[in-house]
Amino acid sequence: MAEDLVLDTAIRDWVLIPLSVVMVLIGILRYFVSKLMQSSQLPDPKIVKEGQVIVRARNLRAAANFIPPKSFRSRRVYFSNEENGLLFVPKGQAQNAQAQMFSDPNMAMDMMKKNLSMIIPQTLTFAWVNFFFSGFVAAKIPFPLTQRFRSMLQNGIDLSTVDVSYVSSRSWYFLNLFGLRGLFSLILGEENATDDTQRMMQMSGFGFDPSKSLGAEKDGLDIVQHEWALPKFEHRAEAVLKKLIK
Amino acid sequence: MAGHSDSSSSEKKSSEAMNDLPIFSAENMQNNMKVIYYSRTFMSIIGGVIAGILGFTSLMGFVFYFLVMAITSFGLIAKAKFSVHSYFDSWNRIILDGFMGGLMSFVLFWTFAYDIVHIF
């Protein structure tokens, strides 16, 4: 059994490099297309207002220990009272908000577009790879794998004695798919839409925003125990000012 | 490369030296996390190309990957002037974060370089 197969240089020139280049270019193209297709819709003012109230309550909860007890309590009463009115309304409005979120044509279109823009290039590229580049050994991965991976990695190759390290171009495609994510995050700046898991987290946190989180924030605010974290602050300020004046 | 030059200039202090309480500025923390991520990705790509050119196989290659990650961690710690707690909230961040994320990029570029140099 040949330990080191010698593969044709033409494979390197015409399979490995073009495949990688094509995937990089498609990634860049998809990034720009998704930027162009972002429909700028005017956000609903009511939803924005509720979102801002939630942000304020959250800030209060996070920085509670840095303001004196009395002012914290007065702020908390302000929020709990204000949100009391808002808390009872969502019971009847909860269904509304969610249903509105999902049947709202703009939002549904946005999600559809994002989904499609992810799936279509991947599917097309995969079909292209399968059609053109099947039936030969494309690359050798530098580490050995067990025999179980043979069926997964060596799709078009029908010889069973070839070392599992020699893989077909389909597995080169998958290797590129995962490995180029890091490269994209370097080239294209911030997190772009090429990361599956991030997008799914974004989508799942989307539809429940107004109705449930108001109640959650109110509960969270009620729970907070105030511990005055800067008890000697006035003394410190006095000491610092004295030093400055001297 | 954009990511790399960023990491040399913009690690920001994320906590003031208060007496008892560490306070973290969330925005600076996030920026520092990003810097770590970019550094690790970049180093794992370079490390992959080096491993491929030098012809490392299987275990040696992965050992080399851990070596590169350790060098990256050390470089980041040195850049933070060894006072890790004023830039990050725990040791784990600077040492372990993003470890596995760079692995796929490393393997890709390792395979690529290895094939180009040794097989073809």
The tally of strands of chain B reads: 0
DSSP, total strands of chain A: 2
* Approximate shape of chain B: elongated
Q: Which oligomerization state do the chains in this entry correspond to? A: heterodimer
Query: How many strands, which pairing sense, and closed or not: the largest β-sheet of chain A?
Result: 2 strands, antiparallel
Order of helices and strands of chain A: HHHHEHEHHHH
Mean pLDDT of chain A: 72
* Averaged pLDDT of chain B: 75
**What's the total helix number of chain B?**
5
Provide the structure class of chain B: mainly alpha
Encode the helix/strand succession of chain B as letters: HHHHH
Low-confidence stretches of chain B: 1-10, 15-19
Rg over alpha carbons of chain A: 29 Å
Instruction: Determine the fraction of residues in helical runs of chain B and give it as a percent range.
Output: over 70%
Biggest pleated sheet of chain B: none
- Ranges of chain A where pLDDT stays below 50 over 5 or more residues in a row are 87-92, 197-208
List the topology elements:
The complex is a heterodimer of chains A (246) and B (120).
Chain A: H1 9-36, H2 45-62, H3 69-103, H4 105-132, E1 139-140, H5 150-153, E2 166-167, H6 169-187, H7 196-204, H8 209-223, H9 233-245
Helix pairs in contact in A: 1-4, 1-6, 2-8, 3-8
Chain B: H1 2-9, H2 26-54, H3 58-79, H4 91-96, H5 101-119
